[in-house]
Amino acid sequence: LAVRNRLASLGHDPTGLTVHITLPVFSGPRRRVRFVQVERTPGEGRVSITVHLEWNDVVYTGSASGERGPALELKTTAQAAVQALEALSKQKLDLRIIGVKPIHAFDSDLMVASLLRVDGVHQRLVGAVVVHDDPLDAAALAVLSALNRTLGNFLHTSD
């Protein structure tokens, strides 16, 4: 429907056209951005967070600073993770972090990240991971989880 509407907006009669949508065939293994680590550097009432991610044997970093406190540091970590992904993709991702929150469900501690993609059509993205040791690591991984499909498709087509 979107394709037919776009064709009509360009002055073409979509009723007389046949539209075929194809997906590229990919025979190699799908790869993901690898989480490396989160570094937390406390300061005077503030904290600096650096997230390190790896893609194709290159480490990309993103940094953000914010106020100290468990909930605030989770969001700062998410911001640093987005910065690292922007460094990796070499473009602004136009993402707004709605929030990052630990929850307990099904006898497991989870970290959930909610993001909003604001370029063009608004798209809500949600990711969740099990918290193992460090909640800041889990916050960065939840951002990667939220962007997994979108980021995978972008990296697949840019290889």
What is shown here, in short?
The chain has three helices and six strands; from the N terminus they run αβββαβββα. It has 159 residues and is α+β, with helices and mostly antiparallel strands.
How would you characterize this protein structure?
This protein has 159 residues and is an alpha+beta fold. 33% of the residues lie in helices and 36% in strands. The protein is built from three helices and six strands. The strands form two sheets. It has a three-stranded antiparallel β-sheet with strand order 1-2-3. It has a three-stranded antiparallel β-sheet with strand order 4-5-6. A hairpin with a 2-residue loop joins strand 2 and strand 3 (58-67). Helix 2 runs parallel beside helix 3. It is elongated and about 65 Å long. The model has no long low-confidence stretch (mean pLDDT 85).
N-to-C CA distance: 30 Å
Count of separate DSSP helical elements: 3
Q: Segments where pLDDT lies below 50 for 5+ residues? A: none
Instruction: Provide the β-strand percentage band.
Output: 35-45%
Please provide the count of β strands: 6
Structural class, from secondary structure content? alpha+beta
Bulk shape? elongated
The major β-sheet equals: 3 strands, antiparallel
Please give the oligomerization state of what you see.
Answer: single chain
Q: What is the string of SSEs from the N terminus onward?
A: HEEEHEEEH
Strand order of the largest sheet: 1-2-3
- Report helical residue fraction: 25-40%
Roughly how many Å is the radius of gyration?
19 Å
